[in-house]
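Design job #97: recover the sequence.
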């Protein structure tokens, strides 16, 4: 069985259509914002410009350690040719804040509070889908131990990774792409 399909020039690993996933923030505590790594979330040049413009509106949502990290510094860095959002101590995203013990995104909080029109970088919005470049975008499901509760909850709710990430996929690739993608979901 072939594990890859191509839709409008985007290669998609069929795991996105088969595997079940539905975030359980109470269980994982927002681990996607705090997974230990020397690499932060990928960010595009266009997203950098947007975040730079919106930073004054996001500032009030940031914890002091993030403000300290960002004061007179960039929120992104270049590593091995890829532009990434900085993390604090190779752990927390510089835009992470805690609400009831759960790590959340300050950019997204400002968005939901109506302060900004940008939700968050597409790499964060698509999580657990990761985008790789192979002469074009290639979408794959990236598993993390911290996300096991989301896999269990996805099975309970019978929601695939693609269905869970619907809004993000539509934001990144458009509604026609999403319709074509979900035509391939296997029961």
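Job complete. Output follows.
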């Amino acid at each position: 069985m072939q594990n890859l399909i191509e839709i409008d020039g985007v290669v998609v690993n069929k795991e996105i259509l088969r595997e079940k996933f539905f975030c359980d923030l109470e269980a994982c505590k927002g681990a996607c914002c705090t997974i230990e790594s020397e690499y932060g979330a990928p960010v595009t040049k266009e997203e950098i410009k947007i975040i730079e413009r919106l930073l004054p509106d996001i500032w009030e949502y940031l914890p002091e350690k993030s403000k300290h990290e960002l004061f007179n510094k960039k929120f992104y860095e270049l590593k091995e040719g890829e532009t990434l959002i900085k993390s604090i101590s190779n752990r927390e995203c510089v835009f992470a804040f805690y609400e009831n013990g759960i790590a959340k995104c300050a950019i997204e909080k400002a968005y939901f509070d109506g302060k900004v029109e940008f939700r968050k970088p597409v790499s964060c919005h698509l999580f657990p889908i990761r985008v790789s470049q192979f002469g074009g975008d290639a979408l794959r499901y990236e598993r993390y131990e911290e996300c096991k509760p989301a896999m269990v909850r996805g099975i309970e709710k019978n929601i695939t990774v693609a269905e869970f990430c619907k809004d993000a996929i539509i934001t990144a690739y458009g509604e026609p792409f999403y319709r074509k993608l979900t035509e391939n979901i296997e029961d």
